[in-house]
Amino acid sequence: MEKTEKKAVSDDDRGSVQIDAAPNSQGLHRRLNNRQVQLLAIGGSIGTALFVSIGNGLAASGPANLFIAYTLYSLLLACINNCLAEMTVYQPVAGGFIRLAGKWYDDALGFMVGWNFFLYEALLIPFEITAINLVLKYWRDDIPVAAVCVACIVLYALINALAVGIFGEAEFWLSIGKVLLIFILFFFTFVTMVGGNPQHDPYRFRY
Predict the structure, then answer these.
(1) Which of 127-133's residues contact partners 24+ apart within 8 Å by CB, and which partners?
(2) Fewer Cβ in 10 A, N or C end of the chain?
(3) Are 95 and 25 in contact (CB under 8 A)?
(4) Distance of CA 16 to CAs 9, 65, 85, 184, Å?
(5) CA-only gyration radius of the chain, Å
(6) For 39-67, what is the HEC assignment?
(7) Whole-number Å distance between alpha carbons of 68 and 49
(8) Which backbone phi and psi does 2 adopt, to 5 degrees?
(9) Of 76, 80, 75, 99, which is closest to residue 22 (Cα–Cα)?
(10) Which residues have CB under 8 Å from 19's CB, separation 6+?
């Protein structure tokens, strides 16, 4: 007859949950402070689409349809983020959502998610450089496209090759620039809506 062993639990330990240490966490250090992490999260949620790609949807469908689409999309992402937060808090792993897919479902899924994320990031960088060229081309025609591409690639490489603290500081100030740009766009849009445009037409919410 097999005997089950029971571990004595003190009064102090009854309200706590024992969680195993995250695998592959040896050698990881926290080099980013709180303000850098907060601005990384905010800046990461502000993408190129908000400044460039949104114009096509706005011109084609109008502000109401764009608002509905963004609302539904945000609700979907909120559900996904909530699931990721619950899994991370319950059983944290080193490697983010890629290792979560392998831990909670299957290693093959984690492998596929990792390559999918790599391809996404690899294609995102040329897309962002293209968007920068589009914006610069709108204001000036004498800026060489090749020079902009080389400058962006060199800056990307330098920021990622430097120490984590310098990387976090660069991302902190770049994220502040994104936030300021959003408020500048809000102010610019408000001024044009109340009549501060070349036609002096206070179009307000008219579409």
Answers:
(1) 127/48, 128/48, 128/152, 129/153, 131/48, 131/51, 131/52, 131/53
(2) N
(3) no
(4) 10, 48, 19, 48
(5) 24
(6) HHHHHHCCCHHHCCCHHHHHHHHHHHHHH
(7) 16
(8) -80, 140
(9) 99
(10) 90, 91, 92
96-141 pLDDT, tens digit per residue, is 888 888 888 899 999 999 999 999 988 988 888 988 898 888 888 8
Tokens (6 digits) for 118: 């790599």
Query: Cα dist. 111→80, 97, 104, 142 in Å?
Result: 19, 11, 13, 45
Q: How confident is the prediction for the chain on average, in pLDDT? A: 83
Closest CA to 138 of 127, 146, 128, 130: 130
pLDDT tens for 2-58 read 444 444 444 444 444 444 444 545 566 778 888 988 988 888 888 877 888 888 888
